[in-house]
Amino acid sequence: MEEPLIPVVPMSHTAHIRSHRKPRRSASTIAMRAGVAGGVLSTLAVAGASGAANAAEPVTQTLELPTLTGDVSAQVAQSAAATQLAAANYELQAERDAAAAAAAKEAKKDLAEAKKKAEAKKKAEEARKAAAEAAASRSSERSTLSASASASASTGVSAPASGSVSTVIAFLKAQVGDAYVMGATGPNAWDCSSLVQAAFKQVGVDLPRVSQDQSMQGTDIPLSSVQVGDILYWGGKGSAYHVGVYIGNGQYLDAANPSKGVVIQDLSGYPASGAVRVL
Fold it and tell me: What is the CATH number of the domain that holds 200?
């Protein structure tokens, strides 16, 4: 039997050059290409099946939040701590502001009270000085009146009636503000009859000590004709329980009672029962 002839392929005229030779494909390369091709076909098949499944059922996607790294967690914690610290500082500042406002209000109140007390103290001091000056003035007037009365008594000459009345009225007015004490006879406390007796004694007229007897002295005068210096009495003539002296303009001066002391009052508020004139 004859062996078959194997055709001889003529070589390229550049085949003997190494860089012009076509690289031979190794079996591994071929296998890899075959695997890739198969994988692509498999992928297409799976994609097709997935597309069909997607067409049949809705797909729910789940988004996963990125996991915080250690640095980010630390930054968040620091930010929270800073926020808390700022809030605490704001609260503390608010408390301080409220306390300062309360303290300022209290200080203003204390200052107002201090000013009020200072003004009251000043007024009290002024009143005390005025009272002292009035007392000194009354003492001076008493001394002058006493000296005048003594001079008149020593010479045996009576002053004119008008002058005598003015002396009586001046003495009475000098005692305004003195106390009323039953049975007292001066110089800083009187009852009604002792004051009238002392006033008329300044001009040399001696009157009885008690109201009942004083109402019996001098000349009876109708109340419609009463004049300055007349003695007013309350109660019956000879049984009067109170006396005073008319000083003009519808007023009289008397040692009224323990609550009022020596005062000037309106006759209309406490009309007298009668009047007598001794000057």
Answer: 3.90.1720.10
d(CA 171, CA 151): 16
Residue 199 has pLDDT above 80, yes or no: yes
Mean pLDDT of the chain: 76
- What values do phi and psi take at 234, rounded to 5? -120, 135
Q: How far apart are CA 164 and CA 252, in angstroms?
A: 17
Instruction: Encode pLDDT of 71-89 as tens digits.
Output: 667 777 778 888 888 888 8
Q: Is residue 223 part of a domain?
A: yes
The separation between the first and the last C-alpha atoms of the chain, rounded to the nearest angstrom, is: 205
**DSSP for 210-227?**
SHHHHTTSSEEE-GGG--
Fill in the amino acid letter for 237: K
Rounded CA-CA distance 243/250 in Å is 16
Six-digit token pair at 259? 């609550």
CA atoms within 13 A on the CB side of 39: 6
Residue 92 lies in a domain: no
Total count of domains within the chain = 1
